[in-house]
Automatic annotation (TrEMBL):
Similarity comment: Belongs to the outer membrane factor (OMF) (TC 1.B.17) family.
Keywords, alphabetical: Lipoprotein, Membrane, Palmitate, Transmembrane, Transmembrane beta strand
UniProt topology in membrane: Lipid-anchor
Molecular functions per Gene Ontology: efflux transmembrane transporter activity
Protein name: Efflux transporter outer membrane subunit
InterPro entries named in the record: MdtP/NodT-like, OMP_efflux
Main location: membrane
Membrane-crossing residue ranges in chain numbering: none
Keyword Lipoprotein annotated: yes
Secreted recorded as keyword: no
Cell compartments where the protein resides: Cell membrane
Pfam family, one: OEP
Any single GO CC term annotated in Swiss-Prot or TrEMBL for this entry: plasma membrane
Length: 479
């Protein structure tokens, strides 16, 4: 029987290993995306993603706002703590590769029954002439241990190392997440800043037109007194003036809301936002080339984070598959052990030992299989997110490039339109004075000039918005 048992034990171990290996098949998720060779423009031109913030934005007030936000914004501080969490997770998983050594101080007592192996053996030992008084076993039997105990799972299949790799990939992804927060915050602040400049310009335009329309109202009132205009004309001019004044208050509210948003991002309360005087005098960055898609992949933090998360999920799959394989665990110990406290530090109480064991899953395989299927599904989600991020990034770059070009052309046409409308207003005023044009033509001409001036300021803001979007789309704004 003993000889049969000796054969059965190795056979069972080999069977467990074979069974586990049948469930271990290397599986990874990879994205096969072929990007176009270039975006529009020259592929050899330096990508704006490489430009530091202070080189892309030249307005010192805007740079100051961005610097303040990076130092105090809660989202930035939260991203920093996510990096610390990921760093601690890397250290934790790396420590799993090393033996876990603990200092141990144990004390206990146990009474053995008279009809147990230990009870009979201890009783018989106490009558042996080969032991002295200190070696006689009391009943109940105390047990004291002071020393070190260890547990070490030997990484036979690289499972623990794969866990460390997954943790490290997520640590790198947290860095990319931090850069993504900075990029997004930089873009939001810049968008709000230039929106504020555009609103300031609109306020100046509205107030200038209020003065002109107020003067026109006074003129038509005088003409009414002289019989050259009717009350209807007076009411029409007054209605136009009131409408323009209402635009002033509406724009002032938008200015206040935009200032409050900037204060929120910079960690301030109701603080005046220092800024330039007009968006029309603001200068665009001189370099607006997108670069090649390879640079897009290297510079966009969200794509980097998605790629690293995909790598981490592939490592998780390897871990889930290796959970089916047998695990070898060593449990050594070293210290003093005795059943009398007075003898605990006696040299004869010094003890050490080691126990090794191999465990393989048998009845919990369904749980491990479910965990594997969950991990594979999560890896596919990470893959689809990676593909989606790349596609979204390409679209954003394309939109930004075309937006800059189209809005620049639109701005030129708007300038010509405004010039023509100013000329038309001047002609309408001259014709009205000689009685060859009615007051409705004057009102229409004045309203057209106001709309064109506001549209021109809004178009200039859209040019800056497209440039900022392009800068963010190629991964700039965090250096």
């Amino acid at each position: 029987m003993l000889k049969q048992a000796n054969y059965c034990i190795p056979f069972l171990l080999v069977a467990c290993i074979i069974t586990g290996c049948q469930n271990y098949k290397a599986t990874t998720s990879s994205a096969n995306i072929k990007l176009p060779v270039t975006f529009t423009g020259n592929a050899d031109t330096l990508s704006i993603a490489r430009l530091p913030i202070k080189d892309f934005f030249t307005d010192p007030y805007l740079i100051s706002l961005i610097d303040t936000a990076i130092a105090a914004n809660p989202d930035i501080l939260t991203a920093v703590q996510r990096i610390e969490i990921a760093k601690a997770n890397v250290r934790y998983n790396a420590s799993q590769l090393l033996p876990q050594i603990n200092a141990a101080a144990n004390a206990g007592v146990e009474k053995y029954g008279d009809y147990t192996m230990n009870g009979v053996g201890n009783y018989d030992t106490n009558f042996s002439p080969n032991i002295n008084g200190d070696q006689r076993i009391p009943n109940p039997v105390p047990n004291y241990f002071l020393g070190f105990q260890s547990s070490w799972e030997v990484d036979l299949w690289g499972k623990l190392n794969d866990r460390k790799k997954a943790a490290y990939a997520r640590f790198l992804a947290s860095h990319s997440g931090y850069r993504l927060v900075i990029t997004s915050l930089t873009s939001q602040i810049a968008q709000l800043y230039y929106q504020l400049l555009a609103l300031d310009t609109e306020l100046k335009i509205i107030r200038k037109n209020i003065a002109l329309q107020d003067k026109a109202l006074e003129i038509v009132k005088i003409q009414k007194q002289g019989g050259r205009a009717t009350e209807l004309a007076v009411q029409q001019f007054q209605a136009q003036l009131l409408r323009t004044k209402s635009l002033e208050y509406q724009t002032q509210q938008q200015v206040k809301e935009t200032e409050n948003q900037l204060n929120f991002f910079t960690g301030n309360f109701d603080k005046p936002v220092k800024r330039d005087t007009s968006i029309t005098s603001a200068k665009l960055p001189g370099l607006l080339a997108a670069g090649i898609p390879a640079q897009l992949l290297l510079n966009r933090p969200d794509i980097q984070a998605a790629e690293l998360e995909l790598a981490a999920m592939n490592a998780d799959i390897r871990v889930a598959r290796k959970n089916f394989l047998p695990a070898l665990t060593l449990t050594p110990y070293l210290g003093y052990n005795a059943f009398k406290s007075a003898l605990l530090f006696n040299p004869g109480s010094f003890t050490y030992g080691i126990l090794g064991g191999i465990t393989a899953p048998i009845f919990n395989r369904k749980m491990l299989k479910a965990d594997l299927e969950r991990t594979i599904a999560e890896s596919k989600v990470a893959l689809y997110n990676y593909q989606k991020t790349i596609l979204a990034g390409f679209q954003e770059v394309s939109n930004g490039l075309n937006g800059i070009e189209n809005y620049n052309q639109l701005y030129l046409l708007k300038q010509q339109e405004l010039q023509s409308l100013n000329n038309a207003l001047s002609v309408a005023n001259d014709l009205y004075l000689v009685g060859r044009a009615n007051y409705l033509e004057i009102i229409t001409a004045q309203q057209s000039v106001l709309d064109a001036e506001l549209g021109l300021a809004n178009t200039k803001r859209n040019i800056f918005s497209s440039a900022i979007n392009l800068y963010q789309a190629v991964g700039g704004g965090w250096r």
